[in-house]
Write a structure and sequence with these properties.
- This protein is an alpha/beta fold and 210 residues long.
- The protein has helices spanning 9-14, 35-49, 65-73, 140-150, 166-173, 185-196, 202-209; strands at 3-6, 21-26, 50-59, 78-86, 93-94, 99-100, 103-110, 124-126, 156-159, 177-182.
- The strands form two sheets. It has an eight-stranded mixed sheet with strand order 1-10-9-2-3-7-4-8.
- Bound molecules: S-adenosylmethionine (SAM).
- Residues 8-10, 27, 29, 134, 136-138, 160-161, 163-164, 166, 181-184, 187 line the site of S-adenosylmethionine.
Length: 210
């Protein structure tokens, strides 16, 4: 069964059953000075919730990667891989480094035992710019690629920081179940709308237009 809850993921994940999640796929909020808290919450719950061999996949801000890796190293999960999501469209400049950001890190950890997924994944991911629903929205292409390689249809995908629901929609498209949390009611409603969208019923559409 798939659900999206409007609420705080720290409280929500504490109520979830141990070993009930096949893969956590998420994009935590990046709020200056507060970003670490979101990864600490992930580190607190991921080890208990994941099945053995289950993956945690998370977008990370490039600037704070060392701190985030230290937090996740303390989660009981094992470092697995680092992927690069190539940025399309306008590129942000981090002026304190004079660095123009051409890619965003996506880290993968695994709950031991460390095992290879059944299918090969590529670690350089290219999506398209997708900001129609929210400035923080990610494109679905990277998620579809990694999720389809790291989990199987029927798996339970958890996104604690669901935003507009991109990762949950990918799970739905791949025949997986999902559980999501989103704390902001307006963003939660956008995600709900996106998740309940159905392809146009062409039979009904053609009747209505002929
Ligand atoms: C970077 S955005 C995710 C965007 C998402 N990848 C998409 O494509 O729309 C992070 C989201 O986490 C939500 N959030 C922040 N703190 C939260 C918390 N404690 N529990 C649940 N959601 C939270 C924010 O409201 C925001 O929508």
């Amino acid at each position: 069964m798939s659900t999206l809850v409007c609420g705080d993921c720290n409280e929500g994940m504490a109520r979830m059953r141990s070993g009930s999640v096949d893969i956590i796929f998420t994009d935590p909020p990046y709020i200056k000075n507060l970003y670490a808290e979101a990864y600490q919450v992930l580190a607190r719950h991921a080890g208990r919730l994941l099945v053995p061999g289950g993956y945690l996949v998370s977008y990370c801000p490039q600037f704070h990667l060392p701190v985030i890796l230290r937090i996740l190293d303390g989660s009981g999960l094992a470092y697995f891989w680092l992927c690069a999501q190539l940025n399309s469209g306008a590129k942000t400049i981090v002026w304190s480094r004079n660095a123009m950001c051409g890619w965003k890190p996506v880290v993968i950890y695994q709950k031991p035992p460390v095992t290879a997924p059944n299918q090969i994944f590529i670690d350089v991911l290219r999506g398209v710019r997708a900001k129609a629903f929210h400035p923080w929205q990610q494109s679905i292409h990277e998620t579809l690629h990694l999720l389809s390689r790291l989990a199987a249809p029927g798996a339970l995908v958890l996104d604690p920081y669901a935003g507009t629901g991109t990762n949950l929609i990918a799970a739905q498209l791949l025949g997986m179940n999902y559980h999501g949390f989103e704390i902001d009611p307006a963003t939660y409603r956008i995600a709900q709308d996106r998740l309940t969208q159905r392809p146009l019923d062409l039979a009904v559409y053609s009747e209505a237009t002929t």
